[in-house]
């Protein structure tokens, strides 16, 4: 879509009650943040912005403190704001998930400076969730969870009990839980990582879900309802390509 169409889509989302927007410097190599910055002009107080650091606009992954600080300053510039509501380490190495890590010293400094209001990490497993909630002062965690991938659930509930906010990512299993794929589907780009066996297994799981919910319900809606039935989850971040 054009930038103008993208800004219009963000405005429509706000009007429909969406106020939490998740982005990162490497989404479109900075383009995602720039579009949101345009869309939020004059509306900053209506939205909550969650961005990340560690994967940079040049597509390089680095958690070097200097690069993290530069990354946040770049995000603030593209988003046309002077603060982020939350900042997440973007899939950081496990050995950095301790408050003694210099990475968390950077996050604390950014918080003290008022550039971020909260910090945490975007991760994938229950082991990482437990490590972050036990060993750091993180305010928020973004973690993969959906009907197919429930491994982190017990750790998520423990984090919630400690007062950590939890955001759910990959909630539609990269599109499978939208119901639009089956065993005959072919993929390109990042989705070409799936083997023939994985496509077959996922299509079987999709059919299992369809058999449970019936033919007339939206699989995506059911999946979202399932996730949000857990009180531990503060928000979910499905992507939108159009009004529908």
From TrEMBL:
Residues 1-244 form the NADP-dependent oxidoreductase domain. InterPro entries: AKR, AKR2_Oxidoreductase, NAD(P)_OxRdtase_dom_sf, NADP_OxRdtase_dom. One of its GO terms (molecular function) is oxidoreductase activity. Gene3D superfamilies: NADP-dependent oxidoreductase domain (3.20.20.100). It holds the Pfam family Aldo_ket_red. This is Oxidoreductase.
